[in-house]
Specification:
single chain, 1023 residues, alpha+beta, Glutathione S-transferase Yfyf (Class Pi), Chain A, domain 2, Ribosomal Protein L25, Chain P, seven-stranded mixed sheet, 20% strand, nucleotide-binding
Length: 1023
């Protein structure tokens, strides 16, 4: 069969479904990308059909015998035909937008109780609808886990199937090749202004103060990509303007990592190469009256910038500024207390324009220029100037610099140098991952990691040490393109892509856990002398070579496998054959197995056995001592932090994961002695591993260290310590996945209870395959150690207790109920559903009752908060944080309060000014990147935190009006005790109703003048 798919059809949409179906049916090699018709297919009889639906139907009816069993159920039902038509008629490119929205709702409802559209397996129906949704505008704009939870779950699951992932990549590659042939940008089509073939010059300017991480890799790859795309020039320029932080070690490592990424600079330079030129330009700025030397302290300077005040030095004469700058240049005691500032606009709403510092003193010897200089330019001043000098035509940098773009342009104009075009792209951010060099350095300094190449670090060296291939890393980053859309990415896709790279080439090996290892012997009648045999290292890739496997009448089995065996049972020993269990000798206390006796049945049908077990030979040939098993230590890791996204105001120390490395002692097969450091292997039924420390013949009893490589499935990438809120929809876990650590939430000062959940919530949170409950059926906490995970006890507080289905008494129980009910079901039962109420009993009933009628203790908790109306008097950008504002807010007191908020991504400066808002004012003041915040602004946020807006007090509100909750009035505390976690306990119940009214546990936010509301967001959380 021949299948032709157009990467850019003249009508219709790209036939993703056809490409995915072909991959599923092992017809991937039959697909070519060309032409302008969505899809055509020609079968063996030379009959040709055109159109996505027609080709899918042809694939359905002509599937090979090998794949018939996969989709046979589809052929037997007309439901598949219905969904094929549905995909074309209701989800196709010609469908009206409102009609598409209705179709999405229909799909969402259909999938509420189903994993697939038809039957219990993926079918052409799923593939057709998935393919249609890939190019559906309504789906892209309106579908989300909050709006269409069941559809989003299904779509995410399909996205991770190998055939769908392959189709997405194949289409993207075809489009990219087509665009390259046409001379445009393809998926990188961002419209570079004035870009001419052969004349584009880009640059990557890393500071040699740390190791290259995955975020830097994106910047480097994108700048390199556009330089190559236009046959231009790519410059790597080390921004070495701060000798206190920079080291040759970092510069060398960045150079090596760029080479590993396949990035080769046409020119390598340093900002220090241009120090003389930059210094000359700074003198000219002083002479033109565009810069002045300020002797204010750093604290005074910061305060004046925040208050939009001019420095006392701003209008000094040129001669005095030149004299002062000369003192700075000499590094004299007088000069050391000064800084050169650009004279721009101290009243600007953009903090970057408020007379920024452009030169400062530093007596630390420079790693390239030594002690020649005592003053150094700032990055913000040097970067635009050197870009212009070096001939850079397009400066591509991440969006964190967007507010500085106008400053960049100002310097170019003030210095009267050549203009440079700019483009901002989104940063690459991953959940549970820090990309701030300052925060990463903190982990190194505290000894929480082994160094910058630690396998838990997001540095290029760290993720390589974890087993990430450069091929997968490069391909994944380029797949992100140059988009400006900010995303908080899961790790699943990049590790899935990595698995596709390593699976075909990873040799297969065996390792057995040493704990309670079970001995096995073949009964006398089948006894034989141990021997070795050459077998393939990879059954599907003979080019990898062979390994020696020892077969012996004395064997080892892993205890977790052995404990489930039954006398008389027939099982398969992998890569050998079937055996029959004759006898099992348990210890008296059933804690271990002394011996298992087996009979060989090597000709038995392995398809009929349920258990396929890995094993190792205990006895070895006398003349081959090198075939003895070798000691192996398996290492698995957790994320360094327990929170998906660390905000600017968060203290990293509060979210450090207690235990991040887990080890398991094993015996490994003898062939592991031949592995080298950095090799990637697969341990049968355990997963992929990379060799971090190879076998050393000088120390034969030292273990080989193997690091577990995540494969993209949920068990391999989920946080082991974070609260149970995984959102990754993954491929069903197979036997090769490592044992998963069970979660336990750390709750301080409160008991823990398993709250009653609705059926709909269970549907949303459960994966698309059967999984074991986190706390077991009896609501017991998991063991603190076991299998691959060694987890410190989470629940050690005196009040920590498990609330069972029995009676609940005492204050600890009340605290437990309150804690449990702070995370209520996503779809609570209607108040009139009496049948459901009757069914509730035990702890579930108590938890439900707690939701309906808050206790007096809860009432006292909510009354402790001091929430008042406030008015924003002034607002400015935080001087040291790109996502924060600093506001002065009138809360009805003698002086306004300084408040730092993370609203910069959501609300403009103009949208902040003079707003009447709600403020929680009795939190303990906290320093946020050097500025102390004395209150918190309360806002409504949608589920995925892409929309945030102020809460709106009732008309006529004035600063100081207090918010209260009817029936729960009380006197607020002067200042909340952070250790009591009052805010953390109350906030999860702050929401907006469908009528936009703000509520706590269905009790309205009120002032004396009326109700508090959100502006546009119903069902939003309030934080």
């Amino acid at each position: 069969m021949k299948i032709v798919v157009s990467p850019k059809p003249t009508s219709g949409a790209v036939a993703y479904g056809v490409v995915a179906a072909a991959a599923l049916l092992n017809l991937k090699n039959a697909v070519s990308f060309e032409g302008s018709v969505t899809a055509t297919a020609t079968d063996a009889s030379k009959a040709t059909v055109s159109g996505t639906n027609a080709v899918l139907r042809l694939l359905l009816t002509t599937c090979s015998n090998e794949t018939e069993n996969i989709i046979a159920h589809s052929i037997l039902t007309s439901q598949v035909d219905f969904w094929l038509d549905f995909a074309f008629d209701s989800l196709g490119p010609d469908t009206a937008f409102k009609g598409a929205l209705a179709a999405l709702a229909q799909l969402n409802a259909h999938l509420k109780l189903r994993s697939f559209l038809v039957g219990y397996h993926v079918s052409i129906a799923d593939i057709a609808c998935w393919g249609a949704l890939k190019t559906n505008a309504a789906f892209a704009k309106h579908a989300s886990p909050a709006a269409t939870p069941f559809l989003s779950r299904w779509f995410a699951h399909l996205e991770q199937q190998p055939f769908c992932a392959s189709a997405t990549q194949d289409v993207a590659r075809a489009i990219s090749l087509l665009n390259k042939a046409k001379g445009d940008q393809g998926s990188f089509e961002i419209g570079l202004k004035d870009a001419e073939q052969g004349k584009v010059v880009t640059r990557f300017p890393p500071e040699p103060s740390g190791y290259l991480h995955i975020g830097h890799a994106k910047a480097a790859l994108l700048n390199d990509y556009f330089a190559r795309r236009y046959d231009g020039t790519f410059i790597v320029r080390f921004d070495d303007t701060n000798p206190s932080k920079e080291k040759v070690e970092f510069e060398d490592s960045i150079t090596e990592d760029l080479a590993l990424l396949g990035i080769k600079a046409d020119r390598v330079s340093h900002t220090s190469d241009f120090f003389d030129t930059i210094y000359g330009h700074s003198l000219r700025m002083i002479e033109k009256g565009l810069a002045y030397v300020d002797d204010s302290t750093q604290e005074t300077m910061r305060s004046e910038r925040m208050e939009l005040k001019a420095s006392k030095c701003r209008d000094l004469p040129v001669a005095e500024n030149l004299r002062r700058f000369a003192e700075m240049t000499k590094g004299s005691p007088e000069g050391l207390g000064m800084a050169l500032r650009a004279k721009i606009d101290y009243k600007s709403l953009n903090g970057a324009m408020r007379d920024p510092v452009i030169y400062r003193c530093n007596l630390t010897p420079h790693h390239r220029t030594g002690t020649k200089w005592k003053v150094y330019p700032t990055y913000d001043f040097a970067c635009p100037l050197v870009d212009s000098i070096e001939g850079v035509t397009h400066a591509l940098r991440s969006m964190e610099y967007r507010d500085r773009n106008v400053q960049y342009e100002w310097f170019l104009n003030a210095l009267e140098v050549r203009r440079v075009h700019m483009w901002d792209f989104s940063r690459i951010n991953f959940v549970y991952t820090l990309l701030s060099k300052r925060k990463l350095a903190w982990f190194v300094e505290k000894g929480l990691v082994t160094g910058w190449d630690d396998a838990r670090f997001p540095t290029v060296r760290g993720i390589r040490r974890r087993g990430m291939t450069i091929q997968a890393l490069r391909e994944y980053i380029l797949m992100q393109g140059a988009s400006q859309k900010s995303l908080e990415l899961e790790w699943d896709k990049i590790w899935t892509l990595n698995k596709k790279v390593i699976d075909p080439i990873a040799p297969r090996h065996t390792a057995i856990e040493r704990a309670n290892i079970a001995k096995v012997k073949v009964v006398l009648g089948d006894a034989f002398t141990p021997y070795t045999k050459d077998v393939p290292k990879h059954k599907k890739n003979p080019e990898i070579g062979t390994k020696k496997t020892t077969f012996s009448p004395e064997l080892y089995l892993e205890f977790n496998d052995a404990k489930d065996l039954q006398v008389g049972e027939e099982v398969t020993f992998m890569d050998w054959g079937n055996v029959i269990i004759d006898k099992i000798e348990w210890s008296d206390d059933k804690s271990f197995i002394g011996m298992i006796e087996i009979r060989l049945n090597l000709d038995g049908d392995f398809k009929k056995t349920k258990k396929k077990l890995t094993w190792l030979a205990r006895g070895i040939p006398k003349d081959e001592p090198q075939q003895a098993p070798v000691r192996v230590m398996l290492h698995d890791f957790d994320y360094l932090i327990t929170k998906k996204k660390i905000e600017e105001e968060d203290d990293v120390a509060d979210f450090v994961t207690p235990t991040t490395e887990f080890t398991t002692e094993c015996w490994g097969d003898a062939n592991l002695r031949g592995c080298s450091k950095g090799d990637i292997i697969q341990l049968e039924r355990k997963g992929y591993y990379t060799v971090d420390k190879a076998f050393d013949p000088l120390y034969p009893n030292a273990p080989i260290d193997l690091f577990f490589i995540p494969d993209g499935r949920v068990d391999s990438i989920k946080s082991k310590a974070a609260p149970a809120e995984e959102s990754v929809a993954a491929t069903p876990a197979a036997a090769t996945a490592p044992p998963a650590a069970k979660k336990a939430k750390n709750v301080k000062g409160a008991a823990v209870v398993t709250a009653a959940k609705s059926a709909d919530e269970d549907l949303l949170k459960s994966p698309m395959y059967k999984s074991k409950p986190v706390y077991t059926e009896k609501n017991e906490f998991p063991a603190t150690s076991g299998q691959m995970y060694q987890v410190k006890p989470f629940h050690t507080h005196a009040l920590s207790a498990t609330v069972s289905s029995g009676a609940v008494t005492g204050s600890a129980s009340a605290a437990a109920i309150e804690t449990a009910t702070s995370d209520t079901a996503a779809f609570p039962a209607k108040s009139g559903d009496k049948a459901d109420k009757k069914k509730k009993s035990g702890s579930a009933a108590i938890a439900t009752a707690a939701v309906a009628a808050p206790t007096q203790e809860e009432a006292s908790i909510i009354s402790k908060l001091d929430i008042v109306v406030g008015k924003i008097i002034s607002v400015e950008h935080h001087p040291d944080a790109d996502s924060l504002y600093v506001e002065q807010i009138d809360v009805g007191e003698a002086q306004p309060r300084t408040v730092v908020s993370g609203l910069r991504k959501f609300i403009s400066l103009e949208g902040m000014q003079d707003k009447i808002i709600l403020v929680l004012k009795n939190l303990k003041p906290a320093a946020m990147r050097g500025v102390k915040s004395h209150a918190m602004v309360l806002c409504a946020s949608n589920a995925d935190h892409t929309q945030v807006e102020f809460l709106v007090p009732p008309p006529g509100s004035v600063p100081g009006d207090r918010v209260y909750f009817e029936g729960h009035e009380g006197t607020p505390e002067e200042q909340l005790n952070p250790k009591k976690k009052v805010w953390e306990m109350v906030q999860p119940e702050f929401k907006t109703r469908d009528d936009l009214v703000a509520v706590w546990k269905d009790i309205e936010f009120r002032t004396a003048k009326g109700l508090v509301r959100a502006a546009t967001l119903p069902g939003a959380s309030i934080k």
